[in-house]
Amino acid sequence: MKAALKTADGRFEITDVEMPVIPSGDFVLARVRVAGICGTDLRHWNKAEPELEHHIVGHELSGEVIEVGDDVTRFKPGDRVVIETVMGDGVCDYCKVQRYNICEHLYDVRTKFVSRAYGEFVCGPEDKFYKLPDHVSFEEAALIDTFSVCLHAHHIGQVSVNQKVVVIGAGPIGLGQLQLAKSAGADVLIADLVDSSLDLAKELGADVVVNGSREDLVARAMEFAGGRGADICFECAGGHSMPKTLPLATKVVRRGGKVVLVGGFDQGEVTIPLEWQRIQMSEIQILPSASFAYHDIYPEQGMVLELLSRGKLNASKLITHRFDLDEINEAFEAAEAKEKTGAVFVAINIS
């Protein structure tokens, strides 16, 4: 099959590799139709990382079932599906209670099977596949992973009616967080540095938008939240922005408020000075959120698919650019240069 492999300099090379094969009776083989680019992918873009060299990566994908194992009962060849890529070892204490998103072997397992979106075929266990309704496109379905990350953070933050919510970052995660908070009945201020992203946020229902390069976010947030500060702030920028955005997040929330960390950190130790005395004296909660798994008895990816299929989440407005697999380097360049290109979610047609 054709796939994009990571190179020594962190870009991609299109080449032919062996197709995955069904290893056991409960596995499904699917042809990938559409994959997406998220913030995690961008943090690894154009960076020399020997551990990823010659690997297939990518974790936002939808496709079509090609073959099923002998024990598979819910799918057949030809079914349109979205594939969940958060997959633990299935045997640890966390996996046993459906918290596989914090499984110690999460990345070892997921990258061996389902987290290989930038190749023509992918193979995984039946319970990681969800059948798509006919009216949900492959492109829209590729955003379900993103929205599932948002829903997990939404559950951790416990957003409720009439709360004042601040979202820092208006990329796909931030715009998903915005939509979920609005659907819960909250008022939302969203901040970013890219005007085109903020224009889209307005279309999706943001009550207030703030360009942090021109406006004082803390002052605007206090005005928005009646002088006390927001009930909850979702940090959705992550990466190299975190040394600025995390301190900001702790300043825009009220006493007793919550900061939910959704944007990802880079690997290794990261030093970010915070006003710890003020945070402690104000009992501000800092709540990490990692990927997604289950909420009570419900798989969060399945919940998002239902929300999307019923029109309660808008994925199509977030899709701004489309490329073919052969153009994957150009796709990443467009996604990275969002201030120039206006990119939000970049879709890659795989096959």
Notable features of this structure?
351 residues, alpha/beta, Quinone Oxidoreductase, Chain A, domain 1, Rossmann fold, 2 domains, seven-stranded mixed β-sheet, six-stranded parallel β-sheet, 13 helices, 29% helix, 26% strand, globular, Alcohol dehydrogenase
Topology:
Blueprint: E1 2-6, E2 12-16, E3 27-37, H1 39-43, E4 61-68, E5 80-83, H2 93-96, H3 106-112, E6 121-125, E7 129-131, H4 138-141, H5 144-157, E8 164-168, H6 172-183, E9 187-192, H7 195-203, E10 208-211, H8 217-224, E11 230-235, H9 242-252, E12 253-261, H10 276-281, E13 285-288, E14 294-295, E15 298-299, H11 300-309, E16 319-324, H12 328-336, H13 338-341, E17 345-349
Helix pairs in contact: 5-6, 5-11
Number of domains: 2
Query: What summary fits the major beta sheet?
Result: 7 strands, mixed
The pLDDT mean sits at 97
Mind telling me the CATH class of the largest domain? Alpha Beta
> What does the overall shape look like?
globular
Any idea what the CATH superfamily of the largest domain is called? Medium-chain alcohol dehydrogenases, catalytic domain
Residue stretches low in confidence (pLDDT < 50, at least 5 long) are none
Q: Roughly how many Å apart are the termini?
A: 10 Å
The string of secondary-structure elements, in order, is EEEHEEHHEEHHEHEHEHEHEHEEEHEHHE
CATH fold-type name of the largest domain: Quinone Oxidoreductase, Chain A, domain 1
Output the radius of gyration.
20 Å
Classification by helices and strands: alpha/beta
Strand content bin? 25-35%
Work out the helicity level.
Answer: 25-40%
User: From the 3D coordinates, which CATH architecture of the largest domain would you assign?
Assistant: Alpha-Beta Complex
**Distinct helical segment count:** 13
Beta strands, count: 17
